[in-house]
Amino acid sequence: MKNQPSLFSSFFSVLWLASMLTAVWSGLAHLPQAGRYGLIQSSNWSPSVAHYYSSAALLFLGTYAFTVWRLQGRSAYCLTRCGLLRIILLIGLAISGLALIVHNMPNFSLYDGVYAYVKMLHLVCALALLPLLIYRLCRRWTGGYGWLKPRDGADTCCGGSRRRPAQR
């Protein structure tokens, strides 16, 4: 395996992993099957509180990561395709999650089709992250990159189009 330079510390990675696992666990506790069949014991605690805190931590860490990459690492690192897909899914989760928070406020509500669409978008984005995680782990074991890869002159990066002139 290659010794790859890193833009973020291992402490950041541990915080990201802990926040993501807490968000997934508390999100699964919201599913009706988890409570009905006793898959996740949540009778003494509300999974919403843990879900809100872990989501807030993920929003903070994501904003921090974007800021660090934008200020320090943009010239040395570029997004991989898998990293771009994960960012798109995380943005979808954040927007749909904020819409669900607004729905829970006392003076506002999403009605019928809009609520179902937002709820399904949140669930689909969350479930679509799992295959990307498995793909990333397989690529990592074979020497691939995760979110970011070092920028080389020969490699093309996601997001920046370097088109060659048409050959005649």
Describe it.
This is FeS-binding protein. The chain has 168 residues and is mainly alpha-helical. The protein folds into two domains: 8-73; 77-150. Helix content is 63%, strand content 4%. It contains five helices and two strands. The chain has helices at residues 10-30, 32-36, 47-73, 81-103, 112-141; strands spanning 77-79, 148-150. Strands 1-2 form a two-stranded antiparallel ribbon.
Strand order of the largest sheet: 1-2
Strand content: under 5%
Task: Report the average pLDDT across residues.
Answer: 78
Morphology call: globular
Transmembrane segments: 50-71, 83-102, 114-135
Organism: uncultured Desulfovibrio sp
GO cellular component, one term: membrane
Protein name: FeS-binding protein
Short summary of the structure?
It comes from uncultured Desulfovibrio sp. The chain crosses the membrane at residues 50-71, 83-102, 114-135. This protein is mainly alpha-helical and 168 residues long.
Main attributes?
single chain; 168 residues; mainly alpha; 2 domains; 2 strands; 4% strand; globular
List strands and helices in order, with pairings.
Blueprint: H1 10-30, H2 32-36, H3 47-73, E1 77-79, H4 81-103, H5 112-141, E2 148-150
Antiparallel strand pairs: 1-2
Helix pairs in contact: 1-3, 4-5
